[in-house]
């Protein structure tokens, strides 16, 4: 649900997210929050006192959704675009989450360092929804924010994973959502850096190929790879399945067990 801007920057709208549990300001055009953010938000249930970094957080939807579902954790939203980072700050305040949510304007393709904003070894968990497409595979969007959210190079993709690796404490978790066809190169980037890699395919309907993958990996683990049963988004009538509906409303979380 979207309604006209009220008390937000020009060119933005207010939208209900997670079944109305959040009200978020986002650009009226360009990249919009949807299923990917809802699923990523549902991938993690951090314990009290743990710190979660949301890399490439955009307006903060996935991280703020996690903060609403898990009220005793702390969130760090990391976004490179100053205007979009400002919306993330606004959204945290709008939803009463400012005390537990920090927003950093930083480039996640750069390695964390003791001299920078991103400090090594300060995250218990990292979540991220990186750009899905390699240059030349799709027509660039005319909107700069949308283009940046959708396309980056393979070196940049690995840089996001290296950033997460440096941020995480030992045995911390990395969780991400990506296109299914990215799996070979993602596994190559995760190999020898992470273990206990678990993958949950996301299928639009029964019988169709997976359109997305949810991936969770543990820094430094030696546990084996695990391919989990798929999440089915839609039933035969085109509506959400009961599981997908609960995830979109923020009333359930992704099951990572076999």
UniProtKB/TrEMBL annotation:
One of its GO terms (biological process) is methylation. SUPFAM superfamilies: S-adenosyl-L-methionine-dependent methyltransferases (SSF53335). Keywords: Methyltransferase, S-adenosyl-L-methionine, Transferase. Pfam families: MTS. This is Methyltransferase. It comes from Labrys neptuniae. GO terms for molecular function: methyltransferase activity. InterPro entries: SAM-dependent_MTases_sf, Small_mtfrase_dom, tRNA_Adenine-N(6)_MTase. Residues 32-135 form the Methyltransferase small domain.
């Amino acid at each position: 649900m979207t309604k006209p801007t009220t008390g937000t920057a020009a060119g933005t709208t207010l939208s209900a997210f997670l079944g109305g549990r959040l009200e978020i300001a986002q650009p009226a055009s360009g990249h919009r929050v949807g299923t990917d953010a809802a699923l990523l938000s549902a991938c993690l249930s951090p314990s009290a006192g743990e710190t979660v970094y949301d890399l490439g957080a955009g307006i903060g939807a996935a991280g703020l959704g996690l903060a609403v579902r898990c009220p005793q954790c702390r969130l760090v939203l990391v976004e490179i675009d100053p205007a979009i980072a400002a919306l993330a700050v606004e959204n945290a305040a709008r939803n009463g989450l400012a005390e537990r949510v920090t927003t950093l304007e930083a480039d996640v393709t750069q390695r964390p360092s003791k001299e920078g904003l991103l400090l090594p070894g300060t995250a218990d968990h990292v979540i991220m929804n990186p750009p899905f497409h390699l240059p030349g595979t799709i027509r660039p969007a005319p909107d700069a924010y949308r283009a940046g959210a959708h396309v980056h190079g393979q070196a940049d993709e690995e840089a996001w994973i290296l950033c997460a690796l440096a941020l995480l404490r030992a045995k911390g978790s990395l969780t991400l959502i990506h296109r299914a066809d990215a799996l070979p190169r993602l596994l190559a980037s995760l190999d020898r850096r992470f273990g206990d890699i678990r993958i949950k395919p996301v299928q639009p309907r029964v019988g169709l190929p997976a359109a997305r993958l949810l991936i969770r990996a543990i820094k430094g683990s030696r546990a084996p790879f695990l391919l989990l049963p798929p999440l089915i988004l839609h039933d035969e009538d085109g509506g959400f399945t009961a599981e997908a509906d609960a995830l979109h409303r923020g009333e359930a979380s992704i099951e990572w067990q076999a």
